[in-house]
Amino acid sequence: MSEKTRRARALTAGAGVAVAALALAGCTTTAAPDSGSSTGGTITIATTNAFTSFNGDTPEANLDTNGMVGYLTGVSGGLGLGGFQRLDKDFSVLENTDFGTYEKVSDDPLTVKYTINEGLTWSDGEPINADDMLVNWAINSGYYNDAVLDPSSGEVTNGGTQYFSLAGSTAGLDTTSFPRSATTTCR
Fold first, then answer.
1. What pLDDT is recorded for position 117?
2. End-to-end CA distance of the chain, in Å?
3. Separation of alpha carbons 141 and 71, rounded Å
4. Has residue 16 got a pLDDT over 60?
5. Which of 108, 69, 68, 102 has the alpha carbon at shortest distance from 83?
6. Distance separating alpha carbons of residues 97 and 94, to the nearest angstrom
7. Angle at 144 between CA 108 and CA 159, to 5 degrees
8. Cross-strand partners of 116
């Protein structure tokens, strides 16, 4: 290849880089000066999936978008109302005392007492109580499920019953004992 041809190619490549840089510079934005906090307004977020359900805890609705909407509206997790813990803006786990409290009672065996705040209700006005927590535990621990599932298909292989289908695993909670008390404790 001649020196003239190499120089022409280098100039062409350089011009291409310059054009690309100019085009990309036109796509950037300038940060607005920080004027403190503001209220109101609209935020637009582009996502991969469409919103399909407020219950992202099921396999059919376990989409990133459903989880984001649930997190932003405070209806994700636990009993569908946020539960005993929440995340802050830095994703640190904080107690959600708007829902209730929990305290470790014993280390051996590990025993935790949960107290639901008085006055919490479902959308139909029914109070949230210990029965709801017990069902939530049964679902998430797989306590009543006696089916063996094929790992590749998720289909029942031994004729047992899978009462609840989770968008996740029961690992960990499946090693806990049946709760000793299902009495309602409210503050």
1. 92
2. 85
3. 22
4. no
5. 102
6. 9
7. 140
8. 100, 186
The overall average pLDDT reported for the chain is 74
Could you count the other beta carbons within 10 Å of the beta carbon of residue 59?
Answer: 10
CA distances from 100 to 58, 78, 88, 97, 113 (A): 24, 12, 17, 5, 11
Tokens coding 57 = 């805890």
Two structure tokens written together for 77: 């997790």
Residue pLDDT, tens place only, 35-75: 666 788 888 877 777 777 766 667 777 767 777 766 666 55
Residue position matching structure tokens 């989880």: 67
Structure tokens at 137: 């535990």
Q: How would you write the chain as a 3-class SS string?
A: CCHHHHHHHHHHHHHHHHHHHHHHHCCCCCCCCCCCCCCCCCCCCCCCCCCCCCCCCCHHHCCHHHHHHHHHHCCCCCCCCCCCEEECCCCCEEECCCCEEEEEEEECCEEEEEEECCCCECCCCCECCHHHHHHHHHHHHCCCCCCCECCCCCCECCCCCCCCCCCCCCCCHHHCCCCCCCCCCEC
